[in-house]
Write a structure and sequence with these properties.
There is one protein chain. The chain is 46% helix and 16% strand. With 295 residues, it is an alpha/beta fold. The strands form 2 sheets. The protein has an 8-stranded parallel barrel with strand order 3-4-5-6-7-8-9-10, surrounded by 5 helices. A two-stranded antiparallel ribbon has the order 1-2.
Length: 295
Amino acid sequence: MSKLLGFRFYMRNLRLLLAVIKLWLIGVFGAPISRHDSSFQTKLMGLHINNPIGLAAGIDRIGVLLNGVSKAGYGFLEVGSVTPKSAEIARKNLEKGGVDGIAIPVGVNIMSEPGDVGAAAISGYLVCARIVLPFADYLVLNFSSPKRCATIDDQEWVEQLLSRVIEMRDEIWTKTHRRVPVAVKITVSPELGRAQCKLLECCQHHALDGVVIVSSAEQDEERHYRLLSKIKDVVKQIDIISVGGIADYQQVANRLNAGASAVQVFSSVLSRGVLLPSSMLRDVDPHFIGDHECE
Ligand SMILES: Cc1cc2nc3c(=O)[nH]c(=O)nc-3n(C[C@H](O)[C@H](O)[C@H](O)COP(=O)(O)O)c2cc1C
């Protein structure tokens, strides 16, 4: 059933399907083309990454592209969104892991079934978390879907979900001695509204490891820069992953300078090709990251 659901989604998004096929073929037949320049290496939520450009959730929805994404030169991969219906199939794929020596950190982005609200939505997230936590390098609770917006304004609901996920993560940590960083993915408006600030404060209060910040691709870089700096002031030591409208290295550098620890790409991969990160990094002086000032 979940296989069928994934198939329908890709048929509605043909450019996405093409990207998936290319990454899968690279995974099976390609040689690693990533640039292993140690100057791009950095840390994200305590995980070592070869470069700060990750593949955003929505392309590899069930964890079948790890080899291709690693070989194509991405620093990390976010699988999902995984829902209770697709969690078991994602688990089986993640369990296999990647080819030794080329694997990159794999985050799993989870979500309840889109129509669920209240307690049903909480149990949807928890079902997914229980299934994927043992196989994820980091976990993301996806709050960025438009269907989730009303729910995440309910602070009590958010508090309850975060504390139960952290509790579950800590149980697994005690049993396995493996601590999985937890993040939330939220869409923010340029002016950073009160509800969004409250949500970020809540992440800070629950000592989350990361926030994936989706900002509109339409706004100019200066606004992304100001927004990320504001968010960094709120979340402080929590790592920020910035996503939205990133297509060249100048933007990557801007977002990192504004306080992000890493970025993710999505639409530009569909329009410019799956090897985008390697082409972004190819001609860059790594020291550019630290020196660059936003224009
Ligand atoms: C067709 C499509 C499917 C997506 N599916 C997901 C998803 O399942 N989970 C998720 O967290 N984000 C999903 N996203 C959002 C992307 O991960 C990303 O945050 C967003 O597209 C902004 O990045 P961009 O401007 O580079 O496209 C999807 C986006 C698109 C266009």
